[in-house]
């Protein structure tokens, strides 16, 4: 498993080490990924009010494009040069008739019940994608298919797998203590309260347990 241990490399953000390839990583890595819909579909809401329903045909009509970006996990590993294929989120929102900011905050939720909170500035950035492919292959359960939110400038926990709902909110969502509302990699915003430098070593010890080699696993209804 040495290929799944970060190594020093030039050009990485502060506190990061390089992995040879993208692993399957999860808060519960020994469980298989959850069963997913047959195609990408996203519900957009404002509180409890439905705003739009985005299906795969809309994503295809907008003209997916390839975006090359590095991926940085908060547990200190990085993979460089990944090619995601998808549609910028702000284009999807515009196509769904959402042309103005519905609310300053949003929560992205996956079918595995994992979620991440955002401010509008981060969510509407140019490189934020609704991704359906990675390195030329359709996203499977290991990498969050059929639809994944990709936010390259933020740590990996903001890149919600099995993306199903985007809920805009007027009030700041409660942030899990181990997360940061912005989670910007360049500023090493790893945690809400604790020092980023102090977290490098203990977070690095989580790489082995959470980043697993890719192997065939059958989807179930377990939480990923």
List keywords for this structure.
single chain, 224 residues, alpha+beta, Sulfite Oxidase, Chain A, domain 2, 5-stranded mixed sheet, 30% strand, disordered C terminus
Structural write-up:
- The protein is of the alpha+beta class and 224 residues long.
- It has helices at residues 56-61, 89-95, 120-123, 196-204, 207-210; strands spanning 17-18, 24-25, 41-46, 49-55, 65-72, 77-88, 105-110, 115-119, 129-134, 137-138, 148-150, 163-169, 211-212.
- It has a single domain (2-212), classed as Oxidoreductase, molybdopterin-binding domain (Sulfite Oxidase, Chain A, domain 2), CATH 3.90.420.
- Helix content is 13%, strand content 30%.
- Strands 1, 5, 6, 9, 10 and 11 form a six-stranded mixed beta sheet that branches. The protein has a five-stranded mixed beta sheet with strand order 4-3-12-7-8. Strands 2-13 form a two-stranded antiparallel sheet.
- A hairpin with a 4-residue loop joins strand 7 and strand 8 (115-119).
């Amino acid at each position: 498993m040495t290929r799944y241990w970060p190594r020093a490399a030039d050009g990485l953000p502060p506190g990061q080490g390089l992995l040879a390839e993208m692993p399957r990583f999860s808060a519960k890595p020994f469980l298989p990924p959850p069963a997913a819909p047959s195609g990408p579909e996203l519900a957009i809401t404002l509180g409890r009010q439905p705003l739009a329903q985005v299906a795969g045909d809309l994503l295809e009509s907008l003209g997916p494009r390839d975006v090359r970006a590095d991926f940085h996990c908060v547990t200190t590993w990085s993979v460089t040069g990944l090619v995601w294929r998808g549609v910028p989120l702000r284009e999807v929102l515009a196509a769904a008739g959402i042309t103005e900011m519905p609310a300053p905050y949003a929560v992205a939720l996956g079918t595995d019940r994992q979620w991440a909170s955002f401010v509008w500035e981060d969510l509407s950035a140019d490189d934020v994608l609704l991704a359906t492919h990675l390195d030329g292959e359709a996203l499977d359960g290991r990498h969050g298919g059929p639809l994944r939110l990709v936010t390259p400038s933020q740590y990996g926990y903001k890149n919600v797998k099995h993306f199903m709902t985007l809920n805009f909110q007027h009030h700041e969502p409660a942030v899990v203590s181990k997360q940061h509302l912005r989670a910007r990699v360049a500023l090493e915003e790893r945690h809400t309260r604790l020092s980023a430098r102090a977290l490098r070593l203990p977070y690095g010890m989580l790489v082995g347990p959470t980043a697993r080699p890719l192997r065939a696993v059958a989807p179930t209804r377990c939480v990923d």
